[in-house]
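sorry to bug you again but im stuck and you know this stuff better than me. what follows is a protein written twice so to speak, once as letters and once as structure tokens for the fold. id like you to explain what the token line says about the fold, in plain words if possible. anything you notice is useful, everything is just below.
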Amino acid sequence: MTLPPCKPDGIDCTRRYIGCRAECEEYHKWLAIHDEEKEKLRRNKFNPADDFLIEQQSRVKKARHRDYMRGYRK
């Protein structure tokens, strides 16, 4: 991840003051880059196939219970 311009090397920016983020052009550029990086990580994390496999066990369990209850009620 790209580091913010406020502390590039762990040292505060010389132009830093309360409220400077609202006016800082470098910060706004970094914010756009940071949002893209976060979105890319989020897209890589979400995978519909993984969700299907994770939920498969609960679907099988519910189906077995449903079949059991049908046989029990007869």
